[in-house]
Specification:
Largest sheet: none
Distance between the termini: 79 Å
Structural class: mainly alpha
Oligomer: single chain
Low-confidence stretches: 1-21, 252-256
Length: 256
């Protein structure tokens, strides 16, 4: 185990005792999930470390001078992940080298672990990256940039960071972790609950949300029906059968 622990370590370094059940192992009973465990860890901690290390104004300036690429949108509406794409390059040259290595290492883990078909070589690479972070993490504390989600902290009791130690163990038990991503359910929660809730009067949410979703469904079915109807009419006009009794010469079919 690496020195990023937030749980008290006992014999065997495997978490807390649970009586006759033995010691609890997070890699067994907590299946890691990309959105809440990896991406939110970056937004709650890594980004705050970077802001404290080089300053918000400097980071904003570096974002503003990114060279645009033709045909590529720098920010696609998924701001959290877009920031992750650029963060290592943005802090390079402004933050200390070991600080950049620490951030780069965690970023490597986040993207490598999303492989849909992890093998032993990939898991070994993840373990190597995780072993590099403890070797460089002290610079984060030395610079005074250790930040929690809402305030500065002076320790490494970070649950999301702790759970990253279980990536390879969990992968070997349940296969590719990306299959357990909550992206689909989170999107459904936003489109089916949060967005309709903003159209209510803040009273009796459930019936108003259900009514709104019912109206959307009826509009969708109406649109589908009208689309099909229009296409059926078009096909009937374009492919109408020939009039009965029409006479054709065989030569007419061979047009050279």
């Amino acid at each position: 185990m690496y020195e990023t622990s937030f749980l008290p370590r006992g014999p065997g370094q495997s978490g807390l005792p649970l009586g006759p059940l033995g010691r609890a192992d997070p890699s067994v009973f907590l299946t890691l999930e990309s959105l809440h465990h990896w991406h939110e860890e970056f937004w709650d901690h890594d980004l705050h470390w970077c802001l404290a290390a080089i300053g918000a104004l400097e980071l904003d300036f570096r974002f503003s001078i990114l060279q645009p690429v033709t045909g590529y949108r720098h920010f696609s509406g998924r701001v959290h992940r877009d920031v992750q794409h650029y963060i290592v390059g943005l802090i390079a040259g402004a933050a200390p080298r070991r600080f950049v290595i620490a951030i780069h290492t965690l970023m490597d883990v986040r993207y490598t672990v999303q492989s849909p078909s992890p093998n032993d070589n990939l898991l070994t690479s993840i373990d190597q990256s995780l072993s590099i972070f403890p070797q460089n993490k002290d610079v984060i504390m030395t610079l005074g940039t250790q930040m929690g989600a809402k305030k500065p902290i002076d320790n490494w009791f970070i649950p999301k960071l702790e759970l990253m130690q279980s990536i390879t163990t969990s992968t070997r038990k349940v296969s590719a972790l990306i299959q357990w991503s909550a992206d689909a359910t989170e999107h459904a929660h936003i489109s089916k609950i949060k967005d309709p809730m903003q159209r209510t009067n803040n009273h009796d949410y459930d019936p108003q949300i259900c009514c709104h979703l019912d109206q959307l469904e009826k509009l969708r079915w109406f649109s589908i029906t009208m689309t099909l109807k229009c296409h059926v009419v078009d096909l009937a006009v374009e492919g109408s059968p020939q009039e009965e009794g029409a006479v054709y010469d065989d030569d007419d079919d061979d047009m050279n």
